[in-house]
Amino acid sequence: MTSNTNPNGRSQFVRVPGGVVRVADPFTVLERQMVRLFDDFKDPAQAKGMRIGATDVTEDAKGYTISIEVPGCEEKDIKLSTSGGTLAISGEKKKPEVPEGTKQHVAGRAFASFEDAFAIPEDADADKITAALKNGVLTITLPRKAEIKPAERTIAIQS
Question: Do residues 142 and 12 make contact, with C-beta atoms less than 8 angstroms apart?
Fold first, then answer.
């Protein structure tokens, strides 16, 4: 993503924890991931909701694509919104109803709410963001803004 960097040389497309816009520092990101890992290992049942599924962010000449695994979720279970240059994603993976009299021998699936946020790059058109859900993968497309070319005019040289 070298074509989409700010003056500091860092990528404009960053995951935004808790709705606060920050530039991702690799050591801070690593520290957060380690804390999450140990928190999940201690007691996954006590976690404050699930993290959003595995996420890929890609960029090409047309714009950006965010692909998120959300198995077991339907369109109605997921909410997308934009505000103040941030794309917010939230939802809930709901536990299915278990018929009365049914014994459950193993319960290994997790059911909880999830949320995440991303800073929308300056060159993305927030009004044209689209999303699709297929085979348990939510694909969000952020197209680039149309390039505005300055009007060209000829200037006469006076003698």
Answer: no
Query: Residues near 20 by Cβ (< 8 Å), separated by ≥ 6?
Result: none
Q: Give yes or no for a contact between 50 and 70, defined as CB atoms under 8 angstroms apart.
A: no
CA dist 107 and 95 (Å) reads 11
Confidence class of residue 9 from pLDDT cuts 50, 70 and 90?
low
> Which residue in 144, 108, 149 sits closest to 128, CA to CA?
144
The residue count of the chain comes to: 159
| Full-model pTM | 0.61
CB atoms within 10 A of CB 26: 8
Angle ∠(82,87,91) on CA atoms, nearest 5: 95
